[in-house]
Design brief:
By secondary structure, this protein is an alpha+beta fold. The chain folds into 2 domains: 198 residues, 2-Layer Sandwich (Ribosomal Protein S5, domain 2); 168 residues, Alpha-Beta Plaits (2-Layer Sandwich), CATH 3.30.70. It has 10 helices and 13 strands. The chain has a 6-stranded mixed beta sheet with strand order 5-4-6-3-1-13. Strand 10 and strand 11 form a beta hairpin. The longest helix has 22 residues. This is Galactokinase. One of its GO terms (biological process) is galactose metabolic process. Keywords: ATP-binding, Carbohydrate metabolism, Cytoplasm, Galactose metabolism, Kinase, Magnesium, Metal-binding, Nucleotide-binding, Transferase. InterPro entries: Galactokinase, Galactokinase_CS, GalKase_N, GHMP_kinase_C_dom, GHMP_kinase_C_sf, GHMP_kinase_N_dom, GHMP_knse_ATP-bd_CS, Mevalonate/galactokinase. One of its GO terms (cellular component) is cytosol.
Length: 376
């Protein structure tokens, strides 16, 4: 396994870590001016980076093949391909926004599990963004407002360079997360608020169940869902579905109605969840998690057999609520579980997967953690 020095002939200027994220609730609404409630997790993508005096980019990873060796001036929509686009795209976006960034040497040493629904892409983007901020003296990483500028650059990298039409939820969670809290993100105006979320204080734990079914956000399925939501809003004569009510959806045809219904009801579920958390009633959010999954599986059709099985078996073994998290079509589910039932729930999920002939899922407890930071 090559070191930074072996690859680039020098030591890095530092190491930066971008965390993955779990979205507690508020799925597939971040591109509809909706409300999301993600939090940063302990699993992190770590990059070692050295500043260059030219505009050359040399990007390598210990876990992914490929990379990039080229000039920053050559970066743009669709270039470079693969994982390197997430890094090069951030530098391109910062430059497009008027910031004086140049070339870097970068090695990805550790990663959030790829394709797990925990946003390995945003973790990589945010680690790279914070490294660029430090190395080129942009002065953005030390304030919430500055970090929101980095969020925008990361989102543009994913949208414009990689070509994945995601919203900004993942990057906001990775850069703005704090321990003991979930981040209420209003994607209408990008405003944020920290909401108390400390399961251990309520005798609970949040299990993340990685189904090992891998997915890609840059495929046609994700784009098709977003297009449906935008078409539904246009049909209703609204800029977004943010303020639409269920009664308003009667004008939609049978193809658009279920997609729009998910968005409208999911935004309402976020509001209910936040109200319960603000009121110290964390155990009561379980039914809202269940309802969210039912909507994602039924109306939005982004679940899969393994995600459904994870949620069903967790609930049957004592989880207070469970839902898929992330873009869907694979990845991870979450289950809110009393601490004294955590092992039993995990065992029941593994047994259900074994009985169904599926790969053994990776199950671990998680909790809200700090956002992206320099680690060395």
């Amino acid at each position: 396994m090559s070191t930074f020095a072996e690859l680039f002939g020098r030591e890095p200027d530092g190491r930066w870590a971008g965390p993955g994220r779990v979205n507690l609730i508020g799925e597939h609404v971040d591109y509809a001016d909706g409300l999301c409630l993600p939090f940063a997790i302990a699993q992190r993508t770590v990059v070692e980076v050295g500043r260059r005096d030219d505009t050359r980019l040399r990007l390598r990873s210990r876990s992914e093949e490929g990379g990039y060796d080229g000039d920053l001036a050559d970066v743009g929509p669709g270039r470079p391909e693969g994982w390197a686009g997430y890094v090069a795209g951030v530098l391109w976006a910062l430059r497009e926004a008027g910031y004086a960034v140049g070339g870097i040497d970068l090695l990805v040493t550790d990663t959030v599990p790829l394709g797990s629904g925990l946003s390995s892409s945003a973790a990589l983007e945010c680690g790279a963004a914070l490294a660029a901020d430090d190395l080129f003296g942009l002065g953005l990483g030390g304030s919430t407002g500055g970090r929101q500028t980095l969020v925008a650059a990361c989102r543009r990298a994913e949208n414009d360079v990689v070509g994945a039409q995601t919203g900004g939820m993942d990057q906001a969670a990775s850069l703005l997360g704090t321990a003991g809290h979930a981040l209420l993100l209003d994607t209408h105006d990008d405003s944020t608020r920290q909401v108390p979320f400390a399961p251990a204080d309520a005798g609970l734990t949040l299990l993340v169940i990685d189904t090992k079914v891998r997915h890609s956000h840059a495929d046609n399925q994700y784009g098709a869902r977003r297009a449906s939501v935008e078409k539904a809003a246009a049909t209703l004569g609204r800029p977004s579905l943010r303020d639409a009510g269920l009664d308003d959806l009667a004008a939609l045809d049978a193809d658009l109605l279920p997609r729009a219904r998910h968005v409208v009801t999911e935004i309402a579920r976020v509001r209910e969840t936040v109200a319960l958390l603000d009121d110290g009633r964390l155990p009561e959010i379980g039914p809202l998690l269940d309802a969210s999954h039912a909507s994602l599986a039924g109306d939005y059709e982004v679940s899969c057999l393994e995600l459904d099985l994870a949620c069903e078996s967790a609930r049957a073994a004592g989880a207070l609520g469970a839902r898929m998290t992330g873009g869907g079509f694979g990845g991870s589910a979450i289950a809110l579980v009393p601490v004294d039932r955590a092992d039993a729930v995990a065992d029941a999920v593994r047994a259900a997967f074994a009985e169904g002939g599926h790969r053994e899922p990776d199950i671990r407890a998680t909790e809200p953690s700090a956002g992206a930071e320099r680690v060395a």
